[in-house]
Predict the 3D structure of the following.
Amino acid sequence: MMIRGGSSRGAYFHRDDLPVEPAARDGVLVRAMGGPDPLQVDGIGGGHPLTNKVAVVSASSDADVDIDYLFLQVDPASETVSDAQNCGNILAGVGLYAIAEGLVEVEDPVSRVRVRMLNTGAICHLEMETPGGVSQTLGDTAIDGVPGTGAPIVCNYLDIAGSACGALLPTGNVVDEIDGLRVTCIDNGMPVVAILAEDLGITGRERPEALDEDAALKARLEAIRLQAGPLMKLGDVSKKSVPKMCMVSPAQQGGLIMTRTFIPHVCHKTIGVLGAVSAAKACLFADSSIAGVAIVPTGNPRLVDVEHAAGSLRVQLSLDQIGKVTGAGIVRTGRILFKGEIYV
């Protein structure tokens, strides 16, 4: 199936329909999505990282989990496939796929689909409207970066700190200095390097297209990213899609912060779900590299809006008595676009 999950679009495959051996599987996916031409006229990819995503889905043998989900990022230019990260937007479509394929039991009026993200082992519970036992698509929920409205899909992430790097602060520090700049390296579901936009000589309010054309900025960010990778226990990240580079400036619409994120070589039109969760958590450290521009609310749970070029993404952070994030909730929407066969 091709499904829009959140503000991304991906090809969803049942695990049994793909080769077991990873190299053979990746070869099939590269052919399916197309490349290396940027328009991907010989495949179903859309010429952007946000439309070159793949979900591999199967029923889980774990009694505490309904679905196992492997996220794969296809890079058509290099004709490679990476499993180095999760994707929270594509995750939002996993419940739609699982229900449509009969992989889970449906309840009335709300179904909960318990998903294990195989990339990191983290767990997310998807709550979906299923009145009369039927998956709902239409609704009044709007998310920035997607036209129109749809039925809400509530993504409740369980303890995801350090899911990719092994620790919330994988370098052991709240702040590190790389190339003379203060950065916070954090993994609260997605490895992110958070840095003040003004430290890079930009406002942080530029359009993503303008930042994509700034060769000097991109080179500087990549130099920082390559050094951050080993510090974050990710090793050589020259061919990996993590960590993400998140440039932060003061919020413009009353939110927590304003962001521009490279993922890692193209500027995101919005912001990734788990990237937003990690950036929001970084703001809770009073001495982090970006805390000085953040407007952090009080209370528990804390509702924060992470602003981006197309609007904002609302994050609900649940904290324990010592301030550790024990859960993060995100509201997304999704829609099955088509179901069929892909010829490779």
